[in-house]
Structure formats: structure tokens, C-alpha cells
């Protein structure tokens, strides 16, 4: 299925391909098409009933999707005017669609396509496919409007209904079905049916790999090996306990700034997103700036750490890493970074430090990290009553551990068009083999999480927002974020679907010291890991966090092309101390970077008995 890409204007139509077939071959193709379409429907059913949050409806609805839909229906039924208006709008939409199809010339110049799912020219030039696409858009918009039209819904029900309706409308897109996907139909005809047969084989292999549950392979992982062509920045593991390995990276010049930089990545994924390749490595970029960089590598939860708590992560993670980094570098204090949940842990521990007079962290930067969860977005669906109970059940069914494969699936279903249906189409319908991609290799290299840590994060941070309200405790101390007086910078990404930038902005307003907020283009990963040499995206700056809302802040902000890293460095450099002689990290007998914890794969971990 490879080869050079044919320009859209030269792509043969389905009609021309069919006309080129002799009768006998055409009959075989039509028979195989009917069988393949049945297989496609079965695959879709398996995806919906066996994978993802929408699939829980067939399992007794532990996520409360059917309950949310029912409450929307009851609200509309009890408000006839709202229901009548919804139906009137749908009727008007259909009348407008019929009129448009009658009067619009099908030979008109194709319009630029914003939705990449419908980029095949057939969606604009073939009247049948054009109608299918427009009808889908009309029905999807109407379905998505129902929760907003239903009065009196509690906010958790409203959010749940919107989330699951979005999953449903995405799943019903005509591109997800072989019989209504022109690109897949053309591949089927051109390959004599081989594209679908290859796709079915890959789907079966993914089901086998998932132990009976569809686990989509997004990339070819075979070319990648940690420490050889991924995570190659030179350094040494200078400290290890049961929870972390601390990596110190080798300097690249004779002098460095006296204050090290210590990075706490999330434990939901592995740290080497910050060191994928030389060309996009944040760690290498920081070392070249003259910083002594330390990074924490978290241990994937197993029988040893399954009962570790948030306090264990604060004590054996944050505090232990700070002390070890200072001892290794000879510095008296350092600057810290927290990424995603690593930033939430850092914030809570900084609150403990403020309460106890511990003053060895001079500044903190937060990448895509929340402390105020009031506007935390779609993930709140997993932290209300039904969602939280569902996750707790997964933990109990896996010996007290939140399995990495379930976290992987959850995050994929937050962006199903890009992270689920794209691969269903490309691989299972077009028969394309997955291609090597370092970012997707990292994304699939998941970690397990101790049950107590994950439960507290969902309940006390997401559901109850205790950290922002001053009701969260760390190591016996109640945390007040206003007491965190060190300078902080919070970075957010404009299109982040995991940590919405509005949520990060609210978090920024909770700190008590000099606070800077910066917004980058793109999403949760690409918005953070955007090397300046790539010359991609943009970022926005606006001094202070005095605006009433994130959108008001953005409205008054200055946009600058390219990566936000140089702006961050301009903020961090004056806080990094004087220049001193660089020292190579000591060989402590613990091994070279990237260490051993990062190399443990999920399949290597034997989960505790249930």
C-alpha cells in the first residue's frame, strides 16, 4: 500500500476504478466488499463494546454514560419547548441540506477541507459521498447540542453527557465504515481486496496482544532502543531508591551555572519525552545553555511500590531527589521543574516546604500542570462518582495497581479521531503497516501507578479540588498555596486536551509569590516539547496573572512565533546563579543514563495477585 502519493487532482475516482474492472473481477470485488463491510462493522462493535469508556455501556454502564443520556432525555421531555426547538432546528437543517444538494453544482470548485477525515476529493466531487458527509455533520451538530439544550442538568451530568455524545458522534463518522469511506473503497478495489484482508489480520493481532481486548498498535516499535537511538543524552544515575532513579547529565562546556535544574516528570509516562532524539531533546538544549540538569526517573508500580502513597512520592521522590541533587552538585539550592502530575506533586510539596521552612528550591517552573482543578476538562468525567468508582474497580481488579495499559487507553479516547479512528482506518481498512515514530513509541511505553496515589489524585485533587482550597495535606501539614513565595512560571498549551490552559491559568493565580504565565501553541506534548530549531507554533506572553480569566489574559497577550523555550530561559537564567567550573557526574556504580527503571516494560512486571 506504499508508493508515492498521488496528487488529489490526479486521484482516480471510485467510478473510474470500477469501470476499469472486467465483469468477473468486479463480481469478486463486490462479494468481497460485502464480506469486508461485515468485518468492518464487527470491528467497530468490538472497539465500542470492548475498548474505551463508551464500551463500558455494554458492561453495566459503570461510567454512567446511559444514565447521563437518560437524564438529558428526561430533561427535554419535561421541557416541551426545548425539545420542540431542538427538533425544529434539526428539521430546518435537513430542509436546508436538501435545498443545498439540489441547487449546488457538483462540479463547483472544491472548497478547502478543514476536517482531515474528509480530505479525499470524492467527498466533494461525488454527490453520494457529499450528501453522506453533510448529513453526518448535520446530525452530529444536533446530537452535540442536546445536552446544552436540556435545562436543569447538574454540571457533572452535563459534562458526562457531552463527553460521551462526542465519543458517539465521532464513532458514527462515515469514514469509520468501509462502505462509506471512499479512500478505503479505492484501496480495496486497487488491491483486489488485499488491503482489507491485511487490515483484518492486523486487527486480530491487536486483539491478541490486548488479551481479547482491542489494543491498537500506533507505531512500529522495533527500530527503537533506549540509550541507543532514544534517550541518548550522556549522564549517570547518581541516586536510587525504591521509587526513583536520579540522573545527572554530563556538561557540554567548561563552566556551568551554579544552581542545578531538577526536573520532575509525570509518572504516568516515562521521562524521556524530554530526550527523544538529539534534534528535539529539551535536556540537551538546557545542558548547552550551561545548566547542570537532573531528571527523576520514576519506578513503574509493582509489588514493591503498589501501596506507596502521595506522601511517599513527596518524601522519597521530591525531597530525596532535591537532597541527592544538591549533594551530587555541591550546590546549596536549586531550581525545579514539574511536568503534568509531577508538577501537582511539586506544588503540594512546595507547600509543605513553605510550612516547615525548607528553603532549598529557589524557583519552580510548571509544564502543563494543574493545582486548581475547577476547569480540568474532560478528565473530570473519570473523577465524578461513576467514573471514579469505575477506575477504583480497575485498580482493585489489578491487585491495587492502576495498569498503564488502561491509562494508555483512557488518554487515547480523549482524542479518538487522532488516536483511535485514524489507526482503525489506516491499518484495519487501508491495510497500512504502522510506521516508526519516536513520539508514539514513547506514548505506548506506559507505566503502572500505585493505587493509593492514583485514588487520592482523582478524589482529592480532581473531584474535591482540595489543593486549591487549602484543604490538602502532605506529610501531616495542611497546604496553603499562597504561602509558596518563590518565583514560579506556569506554561500551558492552547490546544491541550488533558490539562486545559484555562485550568493552568486558575492554578497560576493561587501562588503567593512572583508568578508568570506563558501560553504555547499546540497540545499537551508538542506544546511543551518544541525545540526552537523546529521553528514551529508560537507562544503568548502577558506580564503577571492579574486578568480575570485566561481568555482575557490571552486577549491582551503578545504573540511571538516559535518555541517558548527561549522566553523561559530569559526568565530562568538570572535565577541560575554565577558561572562555576563544570564537574562531570560521578559514577556511583548505578549505571549510565537513561538508567534501569526506564527500561522496565509493562510486560516485564508481574502484577500482584488479585
Which features would summarize this protein structure in a list?
globular, 21 helices, two-stranded antiparallel ribbon, Rossmann fold, 610 residues, 44% helix, alpha/beta, disordered N terminus
Descriptive notes:
It is found in: Cytoplasm. One of its GO terms (biological process) is poly-hydroxybutyrate biosynthetic process. The protein has 610 residues and is an alpha/beta fold. It has two domains: 23-107 and 115-209, no CATH class; 235-402 and 448-603, Alpha/Beta hydrolase fold, catalytic domain (Rossmann fold), CATH 3.40.50.1820. It is 44% helix and 11% strand. It has 21 helices and 16 strands. The protein has a ten-stranded mixed beta sheet with strand order 1-2-5-4-6-7-12-13-14-15, with helices on both faces. It has a two-stranded antiparallel ribbon with strand order 3-16. It is globular, with a radius of gyration of 26 Å. The model is unreliable at 1-9 (pLDDT under 50).
Largest sheet: 10 strands, mixed
- CATH architecture assignment of the largest domain: 3-Layer(aba) Sandwich
As for the CATH topology of the largest domain, it is Rossmann fold
How helical, in percent, are the residues? 40-55%
CATH superfamily of the largest domain: Alpha/Beta hydrolase fold, catalytic domain
Shape: globular
Please indicate the count of domains.
Answer: 2
Average residue pLDDT: 90
User: What structural class do you assign from the helix and strand content?
Assistant: alpha/beta
Spans where pLDDT lies below 50 across 5 or more residues: 1-9
> Reading side by side through the largest sheet, how are the strands ordered?
1-2-5-4-6-7-12-13-14-15
Distance between the termini: 45 Å
**Helix tally?**
21
| Radius of gyration of CA atoms, rounded to a whole number | 26 Å
Tell me which oligomeric state these chains represent: single chain
Query: Beta-strand percentage?
Result: 5-15%
What is the number of E strands? 16
Determine and state the CATH class of the largest domain.
Alpha Beta
